[in-house]
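Batch manifest, entry 17 of 40.
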Amino acid sequence: MLLDAQSRCITKVEIAKGTVNESLAHPREIFRPAIIHSAYAFVMVHNHPSGSVSPSEADRQLTKRVAAAAQILQINFLDHVIVGQGFFSFQEAGLL
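Output type: structure tokens
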């Protein structure tokens, strides 16, 4: 979800569809729409088809890479949310 400076939604963008057990998103695909739409901030959201909302190691590594890139690009990365049976917020967990 791409946001303006007042935290209003500019647009929602589907970046990638994962496989049964793996996401195929890469930071370059995540930031392309943010740059095109001149987003001030964004929230990354994905689902876990299993229903478990616990972040995998791949989720943690992607979040770290995206956070580092966001800092360089000066686009605010507000949260990474995993949706399943409930949800997990990296921001609320202190991991972002």
